[in-house]
Amino acid sequence: MTLQTIAFEKREQLKQKPNSDQLGFGKYFTDHMFLMDYDEQKDWHNPRIVPYQSISVDPSAMIFHYGQTVFEGLKAYRTEDDQILLFRPENNMKRLNQSSKRMSIPEIDEEEVLHYLQQLIAIEQDWVPSAEGTSLYIRPVVIATDPNLSVEPSKTYTFMIILSPVGSYYPQGIKPVSIRVEQQYTRAVKGGTGTAKTAANYSGAYKAQEKATEQGLSQVLWLDGIEKKYIEEVGSMNVFFKIDGEVITPELNGSILEGITRKSTIELLNHWGIPVKEQKISMAELHAYYHNGKLEEAFGTGTAAVISPIGELIWENEKLVINEGQIGEVAKKLYDTITGIQTGKVKDRYGWTVEAASKTMNTSPSL
Ligand SMILES: *Cc1c(COP(=O)(O)O)cnc(C)c1O
């Protein structure tokens, strides 16, 4: 890794920080942000930390017209002894590059960018909230900036990292959610862009989400786009089912996003000796297990919620009530363990946490 000198322009008047009970998700942004540019001659260059501000992009910039963009999502957590931890962040850097490859965007140096992120968090460490369930959400994003309407990959890009203190996903305690099985719309198909965190996958899902919201349901269960039979994901989370003592999650099939919480869940279940399988599972099979009394638990996994238990599945006109609408034992243990490791309350036996910034961290001379 060759670290480039990173410039730092400090904000003069720091912002007032919101109270931790009004944080919500992605509403407030910290004092500074990270930026870096790409062009064909200089590759990725000019890494800098500047006051959080609007950026100037040409109206013809390719991002606006053809959606050439990728993003990531991870969190920094404050421990009781005021350490700031990241959870498996090297996986996010790797996935950012996988998304970029899919979208014909030049890759970043994973180690270098993680180092820049750590410097940004060191500067913004007072923004990492400490109340139960809160964290600092980290949003890296790359956009195509060529002022050019040709339908082809951009030759210039901007990489940004913005930070947002976020509230607890479960301010009222974990409550299982009701989910609508979507029959009409598709999130992604094999060969498409479902494996990449790229904008259109999310805006393309709003239509299905609207239908769920209309029915008072919180999210969508996505089926495969070809046969509309096999279960893929739930909302923007991966999905797991406990069936007759065994945990099943849909196998990575070329349209499912490979979650880091999914991976951690599978690894924990393996450590605990709970059988876990990655395989195809259809909605019809799940329905049959339900009626045989074998469907014991269902839950989603993702950075935002960590574990989101599913209490009800609405499929056609039937309502499947899972585990009497209560959080299951395995989901609970996973939630407690993963959030415990993230916040330093549970010993990290797996080497998953990385210190983001400590009060004593030396900043480079340029800072
Ligand atoms: C980000 C995301 C997930 C979860 O990934 P994590 O790394 O666990 O946060 C799952 N599905 C989709 C579609 C996603 O965008």
TrEMBL record:
Where are the N6-(pyridoxal phosphate)lysine modifications? 197
Q: Name one Pfam family in it.
A: Aminotran_4
Q: Name one GO molecular function term.
A: branched-chain-amino-acid transaminase activity
Q: Which cofactor does it need?
A: pyridoxal 5'-phosphate
Stated EC number for the protein is: 2.6.1.42
Give the UniProt keywords, A-Z.
Amino-acid biosynthesis, Aminotransferase, Branched-chain amino acid biosynthesis, Pyridoxal phosphate, Transferase
* Pathway it works in: Amino-acid biosynthesis; L-isoleucine biosynthesis; L-isoleucine from 2-oxobutanoate: step 4/4; Amino-acid biosynthesis; L-leucine biosynthesis; L-leucine from 3-methyl-2-oxobutanoate: step 4/4; Amino-acid biosynthesis; L-valine biosynthesis; L-valine from pyruvate: step 4/4
The UniProt entry's GO biological process terms, in alphabetical order, are: isoleucine biosynthetic process; L-leucine biosynthetic process; L-valine biosynthetic process
Output the InterPro entries linked to this UniProt entry.
Aminotrans_IV, Aminotrans_IV_CS, Aminotransferase-like, B_amino_transII, BCAT-like_C, BCAT-like_N, BCAT_family
User: Which reaction(s) does the protein catalyse, per the Swiss-Prot or TrEMBL entry?
Assistant: L-isoleucine + 2-oxoglutarate = (S)-3-methyl-2-oxopentanoate + L-glutamate; L-valine + 2-oxoglutarate = 3-methyl-2-oxobutanoate + L-glutamate; L-leucine + 2-oxoglutarate = 4-methyl-2-oxopentanoate + L-glutamate
Instruction: Please tell me whether the keyword Amino-acid biosynthesis is annotated for this protein.
Output: yes
The family note in this entry says: Belongs to the class-IV pyridoxal-phosphate-dependent aminotransferase family.
Q: What is this protein called?
A: Branched-chain-amino-acid aminotransferase
